[in-house]
Design brief:
two-stranded antiparallel ribbon; elongated; 2 strands; mainly alpha
């Protein structure tokens, strides 16, 4: 069982996933910083304060902080849009290689002889 686990962990897919998670976490920190330090203040200039965290619905002794939820949704939408723009920019910067037409292989000697035979037979019938 330990050997199977070791083989599972050593597979390329698991390692790729681990690298993806680590890079994703680092990228999330960059995007969060971009949103919190650049995008939100820019939006704040036009809209005013966009902090809804003080909105609370109180029912009995329960406090429903729906303002914090609204803030999270807004931040998610902003982050998703920024990631969309970044990916779009990266796709433009990273040029895709031009797709070449598939190379037609040179016919073998046997294929050439068969083609000559077919041509001779067609000429003989005409």
């Amino acid at each position: 069982m330990l050997k199977e686990f070791k083989d599972f962990i050593a597979r390329g897919n698991v390692m790729d996933l681990a690298v993806g998670v680590i890079v994703g976490a680092a990228f999330t920190a960059i995007v969060n910083s971009l949103v919190n330090n650049l995008i939100n203040p820019l939006i704040g200039l036009f809209v005013g304060s966009i902090d809804f965290s003080n909105l609370v619905l109180t029912v009995g002794s329960a406090h429903f902080k729906y303002g914090a939820f609204i803030n999270s949704v807004i931040n998610f939408l902003i982050i998703a849009f920024v990631v969309f723009l970044l990916i779009k920019l990266i796709n433009k910067v990273v040029a895709k290689p031009a797709e070449e037409a598939p190379e037609v292989p040179e016919p073998s000697a046997e294929e050439r002889y068969l083609k000559e035979i077919v041509t001779l037979l067609k000429d003989k019938q005409d």
